Amino acid sequence: MRNIVLGVVAAGISAALGWLARTYLWKRKLRRKQAFFGLPDNSESLLVVNRDAGSTELAVHRYDVFALLELSALIKDCGAHAEVITQDAARQGFGERTEFCVGGPTSNRRMMAHIAAMLPGVLVKVDPSEPGPIRMTYQIGSELYLLEKGVSEYVLLARLTAGQPGLTRPVFLFCGQTAITNQAATRYLARNHERLYRKYGDNSFVILLKVVNSQAYGPDVAELVADVTRAAQTPLPTPAAPRNSHRAS
Description:
By secondary structure, the protein is of the alpha/beta class.
């Protein structure tokens, strides 16, 4: 009988220790996630919604809706709350609340303002008079990245802070050449935030992703092209020559 009792007690102690260890690891993982996104328990965040650039009405593209749903799930996992506002209704600075800004500068004025203020090395060619292959080209530093819709599309994913790290809430930018690339960037962030946190911590970063063959694979195949943080934060040099263009092979 004594052996049975000792066995039960030992099993209970082992189970309790296992539960405590799992709880500790889960909480540590959660704290890292909250630190990366700037979303402590019960904090407030801002989801800035763009509009469908191809619509004459104030509509949101369905892929951008999917992107917002993915971000909402991340925010909920952190135990935080989100306020959704349209890009033309955002009339506040940044740093007080974590902000998730979705859409390219043609559909999101807020994105245009963020790029101008914090990413002087990024230029998006949005002039409607530009020929089809040139419009929506991204210039980052001295490099050009052309849009080939449905085949090779680019998106900038950035985590930016104003001032010293840790003192302000970050701004996350999902600036894509097409709506489907915005969703690809949010999905990439959801899948890779732990790796990004290990690499960058609380620091700002800007990475460029390429969405491959979206007409067949949707937003699921997104390749990391490069870390372009330094180039994106350095004022642009003279205009890049077309021979530096990047095209899908």
